[in-house]
Amino acid sequence: MMIEIVRSKIHRVKVTAADLNYIGSITIDQDLLDAANMISGEKVQVVNIQNGERFETYTIPGARGSGEISVNGPAARKVQPGDVVIVMSYGLFEFEEAKKFKPSIIFPNEETNRLDG
């Protein structure tokens, strides 16, 4: 049996932009993608701490060290710049493998969206 579990998580980052006229996705600083073991084009769930909105989209890399978290396309209506979000990806695992799996969870500085230290 396969089950879906959290694979990666970027915990509490601040939205820097919301671009309704972009074709879609969430742009994330490449340093954060790397640290969370996420890749370009990966499906993610985004949870907005401020208003409880949840939506799915896919990642695109932003400039390294920029702290960029830009929600693009229609999902831009679900956030405002300054909102704090959690970004999670999931994976399918065999049940026994899932019990042993350790997700990549990072806790960036919420003010700068950068990894301190």
Features:
2 helices, mainly beta, Barwin-like endoglucanases, 8-stranded mixed β-sheet, single chain, 117 residues
- Here the CATH topology equals Barwin-like endoglucanases
Uncertain stretches = none
Q: Which structural class best describes the helix and strand composition?
A: mainly beta
CATH C-level class: Mainly Beta
Please report the total strand number as a whole number. 8
Count of individual domains: 1
List the helices and strands in order. EEEHEEEEHE
Shape: globular
What's the arrangement of strands in the largest beta sheet? 2-6-3-5-4-7-1-8
Question: What does this 3D model show about the protein?
Answer:
With 117 residues, the protein is mainly beta. It has helices spanning 30-35, 95-100, and strands at 2-14, 17-19, 25-29, 43-48, 54-62, 69-72, 84-94, 104-106. It has an 8-stranded mixed sheet. β4 (43-48) and β5 (54-62) form a beta hairpin. The termini are far apart.
Compose a concise summary of this entry.
This protein is 10% helix and 46% strand. With 117 residues, it is mainly beta.
Write the layout of secondary structure elements.
Layout: E1 2-14, E2 17-19, E3 25-29, H1 30-35, E4 43-48, E5 54-62, E6 69-72, E7 84-94, H2 95-100, E8 104-106
Parallel strand pairs: 1-8, 2-6, 3-5
Antiparallel strand pairs: 1-7, 3-6, 4-5, 4-7
